[in-house]
Amino acid sequence: MRLDELAAKLGAVLHGDGEIEITGVAGIREARAGQVTFLANPKYESFVATTNASALIAARRPPGRSLPVLEVEEPYLAFVNALGIFSRDRLGAVPGIHDSAILGKDVVLGEGVSIGPLVVIGDGAAIGDRTVLMSGCFVGGATRIGADAHLYPNVVVREDSILGDRVVVHSGAVIGSDGFGFARDGESVRKIPQIGNVEVGDDVEIGANTTIDRATTGTTRIGRGSKIDNLVMVAHNVQIGANTLVCAQVGISGSATVGDGVTLAGQVGLVGHISVGDRVQVGAQGGVTKSIPSGESVSGYPALPHRQARRIYAAMRSLPDIVRTVRELCRRVAALEGGERRRDRSDGRRRERE
Fold it and tell me: Is the whole-model pTM more than 0.85?
């Protein structure tokens, strides 16, 4: 499209030639002629002079280059919107049901759904309008999936699960698997039936090979707008609020509650039956062993307020020197005490002679 058309779609103020033809979007270093790029971080401003892009999305016109600029308040968000405008259906999903798909009894399909090869849909499931199930997906009985959802190849959604509108689930994810519930019975271990379900809100994205267990009873819940990375484990009866970010390799133990707008960085672990308040940030590899009030930033194991954890880690780097100093002080104290004992014995013998 023409640059002035793109500016109108992005709500941007155009500085420069609006008749330039724009064919795509790219980063500032790899952009080619015909593409639009963006500048959101000042450390990339030097690349404005050398980029091959035909136009720039920025908060202001950078000096020293007469490159056409789309001026916006939030360049990164405008770049994201531009990506959406120029994105194409590269996966080739088209409405229809592949001949190899297996549909159970009383399955309800919305308008424009795409059911790929070898998809299996259980009895009584309902799939919303324009939802895409790519090859090898399994949807259990009585499951409900909303409109405009996209399940990539080999996703498993077990029975009775509920997925909202515009949910994206990447390959290998398993939603609604049994929770890890067992009870000891003498020398044996008995399985606790997991009869609850999983509910995933609108606009949630779930990464590849992530597992979200069904509740023992009740519901394991993922709030609207939350984003879950690859290789995440969400245990039974966990409650995750809205617009929360859960990064790779996080493990959330059973019955933990995570609030709205929380960020759990990579490899964070939460013990069960605790509560993490709204807007909490937990640093990478943080081990959360007790509840955290809203608005806190914590890190380390066990997780402590971030500033305190940083001081502890800084002190730990000095431990070798501290150990050497303590050993030297112990040696000196021992030497002084040895001298005192020798003097005491000498004084005692002198008093005896007297």
Answer: no
